[in-house]
Amino acid sequence: MNSGTLVGSLIFAAVLVVVIAVVIQLMMRGWRRRAQRQVELIGDLPPLPDEVGAALITTPGLYVGCTLSPAWNDRVAVGDLGYRSKAVMTRYPRGILVERIRAQPIWIPKESIVNIRTERGVAGKVAARNGILAIRWRLPSGTEIDTGFRADNRDEYANWLKESA
Fold first, then answer.
1. Nearest Cα to 96, choosing from 84, 81, 107?
2. Which residues contact 72 (CB under 8 A, 6 or more apart)?
3. Of 12, 76, 112, 124, whose Cβ has the fewest other Cβ atoms within 10 Å?
4. Fold of 57-162
């Protein structure tokens, strides 16, 4: 390789690194601005009660994220609600607890649940036919959001849907 080709390759590589860094920075700025716009809509999440009772259903899987209802792809960016993680979702007589790895647990009080259904996609995650369990619930601020969960065993969805009826 001659010196002209080497210099051209190094310049191209440097420009490529700068372009990638700028694109990542713009994506992060967009995520932060989305979170700022949603802060008032989301408000504070319901606190985890001291006593939840005996577990009715426990399902391991993947917490997909939360979206503003009814838009299945308008991901909530406030706090850590928009980040996917492995989780365990448990139904109690007083509500639903989503315990996420490396994230705060989410408590969904029973009186806040609007409906529980299966969906093809939530929060930008598209699964096989009816592969995601979506829980629509009302926050203390009055905003309705959908919380998506993909179970390791999709056969368990029948128990969740039966329990919500």
1. 107
2. 119, 121, 122, 123, 134, 146
3. 12
4. PH-domain like (2.30.29)
Dihedral of the CA atoms 25, 28, 33, 39 (nearest 10)? Answer: -160
Strand partners, 70: none
Q: Residue 154, CB half-sphere, CA atoms under 13 Å: how many? A: 12
* pLDDT tens per residue, range 61-111: 999 888 888 877 778 888 888 888 999 999 999 999 999 998 899 999 999
Count CA within 13 A, CB hemisphere, residue 75: 19
* DSSP H or E run through 116: strand 113-119
| Sign of the four-CA dihedral 82, 84, 86, 90 | positive
Q: Decide: helix, strand or coil at residue 40.
A: helix
| Structural domain spans, the chain | 57-162
The single residue listed with the structure tokens 């997909």 is: 64
State the pTM of this model.
0.77
Which three-class secondary structure state does DSSP give residue 152? coil
> Helix, strand, coil proportions of the chain in percent (round to 5)?
35, 35, 35
Sign, CA dihedral 131-136-139-141, equals positive
